[in-house]
Automatic annotation (TrEMBL):
This is Cytidine deaminase. Belongs to the cytidine and deoxycytidylate deaminase family. It comes from Microbacterium schleiferi. GO terms for biological process: nucleobase-containing small molecule metabolic process; pyrimidine-containing compound metabolic process. This enzyme scavenges exogenous and endogenous cytidine and 2'-deoxycytidine for UMP synthesis. Its EC number is 3.5.4.5. PROSITE patterns: CYT_DCMP_DEAMINASES_2.
Length: 133
């Protein structure tokens, strides 16, 4: 986990951001993540004339994760149209949490953080299992 190529991951996020479809907000986002088998998956935001239907970049990234073989996310970064690192929105932190490896790292506006730091006391699959037991 310590030898993560953050600059390479950010470059992938920038490439993804350039494919964004964001004609309504004019706010392009690209996301890139490392998978536990070494793959990199990416996504961009895809908006819609029905504004609420718009997809965050992380949605595309999670779809790409499953379409390319599944696995767990170990490192993540997302950028805006100015190539600046941004925080994943609250909904997308939940989305990432579901598919995270334990100790997943995020390059954030305040440095490298763990998924547990950016989504403390997260609700997750275990809560459902415990309720069923
Ligand atoms: N957006 C993302 O793609 N990911 C985030 O984590 C934050 C917000 C997108 C959604 C919308 O298309 C645009 O940024 C402006 O909110």
């Amino acid at each position: 986990m310590t030898d993560i190529d953050w600059e390479g991951l950010r470059t992938e996020a920038i490439s993804a951001m350039r494919r964004a479809y964001a004609p309504y907000s004019n706010y392009s986002v690209g996301a890139a993540a490392l998978v536990d088998d070494g793959r990199i998956v990416t996504g961009c935001n895809v908006e819609n004339a029905s504004y609420g239907v718009g997809l965050c970049a992380e949605c595309g990234l999670v779809s790409a994760l499953h379409m390319s073989g599944g696995g767990r996310l170990t490192a993540f970064v997302c950028v805006n149209g100015q190539e600046q690192i941004i925080m994943p929105c609250g909904r997308c932190r939940q989305l990432l949490y579901e598919h995270s490896a334990s100790g997943m790292l995020l390059h954030t506006v305040s440095g490298i953080r763990t998924i547990d730091e950016v989504l403390p006391d997260a609700f997750g699959p275990r809560d459902l299992e415990e309720a069923r037991a």
